[in-house]
Amino acid sequence: MNRRLVTILLLAFAVAGTCAFLVYRMVGNRLAAAKPAATSHVVAANADIKLGAVLNAANLTTIEIAGVLPKGAILKPENAIGRGVISDLYQGEPIIENRLAAPGSGGGLAATIPEGMRACAVRVDEVVGVAGFVTPGMRVDVLIAGLPPGVNSSSSSTGTLEKTLLQNIQVLSAGQEIQKDPEGKPRAVQVVNLLVTPEQAQTLSLAGGQTKIQLVLRNPLDTKIDAVPVTDTANLFADQTPAPVKARPVKAAPKAAPPPAFTVEVINGAKRSEKKFGTSEGQQ
Predict the structure, then answer these.
(1) For 39-111, which CATH class?
(2) What is the pTM of this model?
(3) Which of 37, 85, 113, 124 could anchor a disulfide with 128, C-beta 3.0 to 4.6 Å?
(4) In which region does residue 198 sit, left (phi positive, over 0), alpha (psi from -120 to 50) or beta (all else)?
(5) In terms of Cα–Cα distance, which of 205, 56, 64 is closest to 121?
(6) pLDDT tens for residues 244-277?
(7) Domain boundaries, the chain
(8) Rounded Cα gap, residues 273 and 264, in angstroms
């Protein structure tokens, strides 16, 4: 057989084999893409569920999820029933383990408190509470205003003092509680629960009975603790304009002392006379 013909045949087989392999890969990929992905059933919220609620069978449903399941997804309703919700859930949302309290801890605010932390209630005004200024998950600084112990407003030279007591504190919940006014009538009071350490809880509780508390919002990504100096009322009204510089008086140059007077004797023949110099008489 001709060598040239053999070479051409070998090349043709090689090209044909390569084309067949590429076609096989393309068809296989399309068939794999067309094949439905494996699905799993997970437990989801049947309606919007607020923080602190205890889950029951009516709150739950199951949904089908294709592909990889969310980390910590609950597959059986019995693993969620009776557990408290520590973060708001929304209808159709898969329920994750870290959104629920530990089994047996119940519901309510207590189930949302991490180990070693405390929830301390702070009363705030209506602007802070109602206007949506403070909501769960936000970060705030706690400011206090008042006078130090033993100082009254009449004897204080600085007035009311303002101090940043705590910084970067997480808001656990915000709501209302019913208290009675001096006349015995019920009234709604805005209350914010802050997540603090036991030491911070003592400080905050003491400040709540002695001073006025104000919350200020901060960026949740800003975790820096600043050294903030105490501010007093006197500084607010102090005149910050520098006092004008008084012009120094210009002293007059001292007068030069008159030259000492002296007498010159003039002899003109037999006539003698005297001339005085250095005095007004001598200049005449």
Answers:
(1) alpha beta
(2) 0.55
(3) 124
(4) alpha
(5) 205
(6) 656 666 666 666 666 676 677 777 777 777 777 6
(7) 39-111, 117-237
(8) 8
